[in-house]
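Box 3.1. Reading complex inputs
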Amino acid sequence: MSPRLTALTGLASLGLLASAAHAQELRTFEASRQLHDSVATTVCVRYGAGHLSMRPTDGQQLYRMELHYDPERVQPIHTFDPVARRLELGVRNDGGHISHLHDGSMALELARGVPLDLTLELGATKAELDLSGLTLDKLRLDAGASESEARFDVPNPHPMRRLDIQVGAARFRGADLANANAPLVSVDAGVGGVDLDFGGHWTQDIDLDLQVALGGSTIRVPSDVGVRVELERAFASFDRDGLRKRGNAWVSDNWDEAAHHLVVRGSAAFGRLTIRHE
Amino acid sequence: MRRCMSRPLRLALALAAALAPRLHAQQPSAAPADTAARPTASPVAVAGLVVPKDARVDDVVVLRGPIDVYGTVNGDAVVVSGDLTIHSGGRVTGDAVSVLGHVRLLDGGAVGGTLRSMAGTEGRHTEAVSPVRAGPESTMHALKLVLGWLTVLIIIGLGVLVTASPYLDGVAEAFEVSFARALGVGIVGQMLVLPAILLACVALALTVVGVLAIPLAIVAGIIAAVGLLTLGFLAVAFITGRSLLGGERGPTRRRATSARGEALVALSVGIGVYLSVWLGSAALTSVPALAVVLRTIALATTWVAATAGFGAALISRAGTRSESARAARQAAGRTTERSPYQSGVPGWQTPTPVHGVVAARRPIVPPTHD
């Protein structure tokens, strides 16, 4: 075989090998862990771009994660420290690249009966979070540029110490937030805007610390719950429905008689805050 | 702390990484009886493995076959191209991993570590599988980019030759007079582009009325700088191509139709020379080390050519001031001293007026009296 032909053959082989190796662009990865006990666990979920769905599970698993990801851009994360009881799940961006594949997805199931300190760090994702019935001790959601929806269809059996929501450049919708069983809710709306529905089963008063920037925010409160709003506004509009001025705050008519109360404190700048007492 | 991966698991995953692109999904076959694991052994098997009830084994690795665990695996259980099933009563103290298959944990089974299954390898390929990081798609994309630029520059060059050939000549002459001077002026010119635009904006702002023209000034400044840079680069490319093709044509002859074709060829060759290094770099995208070296060389040569051309464009004022004409004027001015009142026209000749004809006075004939 002549040297030229040898070289050509070698180059062709390299090309074929490269094409074969490059053929798979989206991979499927599943990871889970059997549930051995119900010791409190810290869970940190990181997901940069794609579609995230989360739901509880009654199975014998602490977690189950199914990932469809671009291996050239991200790497799966699934580490569990049994000593520190710390679980990290999601994907890690590889070198700061953004995947050009937009159909990546992550489906995550978490066990119901385990007290969880749950942190979600999302990037540019579309997130559907069904947190119904999870035993949440603390929840922190950093939505980034993601369009997120979190719902609590079933009450949280464990009193949640704190619920923190930070929204960046996209919208967040929370449904039946009273079922979260959190006496303190902190929402930083950024420029995306939030829609907070405090429906569900009320067991205690709730303090809402709300910071609204450029986006519009809507708070929906059941008609049998008293509402008090103490808001500092700067070039922001405040659409109140049935609230009356009392001192330096706006209160609902049923504030004195209501069994449970929602106190909204915070600030709004260049945004719009709407209170719906329905 | 994450448990360290055992040696068999590392070997198995490395082997999986090497084999994964070539492996195909297979139906699990029944494990023959002679592949049943012996107690305390660490079997690596092909075509299936069964860990019997009451058996205790260390890490198990299977290629192309299922693992059925009825007993205890002290460590990790790994299967490549097959399913891993932990039956009732079965136990894996470490991780249960399946590559190109599934992990099934039946009721009554136990896994102390993580259950993992993956289609293909986790993360990026190892060097053994893919010695090149970029696939043919990246190389084609890079080649198309360079060829696109080549086409664009040739089209622009053709336009300049057709519409602005004298200006191209002027810049080329300035470059030929002194390369070092052109390069120096080009470097200084590049550094002063932004300050010049800023100065223009400040001056317009000071006039108050000119504030409205600031955006236009910025755009015009950028367009002018880019235009000079392009003209200069084309002039340098033209000279390069002409040098390679041999022969020097004077400006007058170059304006003939056939000479224009020759000029286009020279310009195309010159552009091709400068872009050939970029082309080589693009072709070797799949070999990053060489691609980086070639790209550096291409960047350096292109920058020098563009900068020197920019400097020549500045010196020649975009080709409007020909160096040869200026030198001729200087030479003529030194050899002959003319009186501002002296013209080259002989005194007895009346020069023809430029604007119209001077009306002559009709001779007045005195009247005669009879």
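In summary: Chain A touches chain B at residues 14-15, 17-24, 27-34, 36, 60, 71-72, 75-76, 78-81, 83, 94 (CB under 8 Å).
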